[in-house]
Write the structure tokens for this entry.
Amino acid sequence: AAKQRSRNGYQFYRDTLNIDVQPQLKIEAQLAGALDRGEFQLYYQPLVDLRTGIIRSLECLLRWNSPVLGSVSPSIFIPLAEAQGLILDLGTWVLTQAAEQISVWRAADQPDLYMSVNISPLQFEQPVFVGLVAGVLNEFQLPGDALLLELTEGSLIHDLEASNVKLAQLRDLGVRIALDDFGTGYSSLAYLRQLQVDVLKIDRSFISSMATEGPAFVSMILHLAQHMNLMTVAEGVETEEQRDLLRSLNCDVGQGYLFSRPQPAEVIKTLLAAPSPAIQLPERFSGKAL
Ligand code: C2E
Ligand code: MG
Ligand code: MG
Ligand code: MG
């Protein structure tokens, strides 16, 4: 068998890859019809004002529960949906669901609440994208500031000029833009100067490294963002220490398991009506660092 392997590279290749490739093909096959079969659901995660403890907005996060595969992580199926082209229909579905949900919550007592929606580069690149957003706002009678679109640097820098034109059109609708996962792209700083965005979301990796490496990087990013009049969001806040340090550094908003995991709409509805103790901030804040 060893001889066959060394002689026949393909055999070896197939044997080792089978473990990974087989499930991926299976996932792709299931993914193709998943939207039509109604297997997707949106979960929502609160973004909490670090000064007041008020829930300012929610980020909608896609969940796929396949009867065949079980629940599949977005980090697995989003890239596949992009490769299949399904991301366009899926993205439109997400945008529509998110708009409908935020219109319900706003009407129910929270007129200033808004929804963050992740946008794939492929969606953003579509010529019809701005029209699509305008159509969805119109459908649910929403002002533009009910939506905030989360884009990564990767979707924007490919054609900076075209991106800025589109961002300006979205801004004309009143829609705000966040740069997601800031700090993970390899040219973040160079492009930040040239992109018209409203919000900077500091990637979770910077927040989790504060405990061991100290707050220098986060502090620098916050200073920069404050200087540019950007709203700042810390992703992946998991501990009270991180929260308190971020507060002392004047980070505007926190998002993470400390406050709440992403949850279905029914659970978020309850949370909005009566915020959990985890979300309410300690009344007296010492401002003490880690
Ligand atoms: P993202 O937009 O950066 O979303 C934040 C991710 O961090 C989410 O993972 C969220 O569940 C997770 N998270 C939040 N708080 C914490 C925390 O305290 N600790 C840790 N360890 N994780 C936390 P999720 O839901 O698995 O989504 C992963 C990525 O998939 C998202 O990253 C986004 O890029 C993409 N994604 C999710 N939903 C959509 C969608 O509707 N459309 C598109 N295009 N992409 C989506
Ligand atoms: Mg996001
Ligand atoms: Mg993010
Ligand atoms: Mg992230």
Observations:
- The pocket of C2E (ligand 1) is lined by residues 45, 61-62, 73-75, 78, 91, 94, 118-120, 150, 180-181, 204, 236-238, 255-257, 262 (CB under 6 Å).
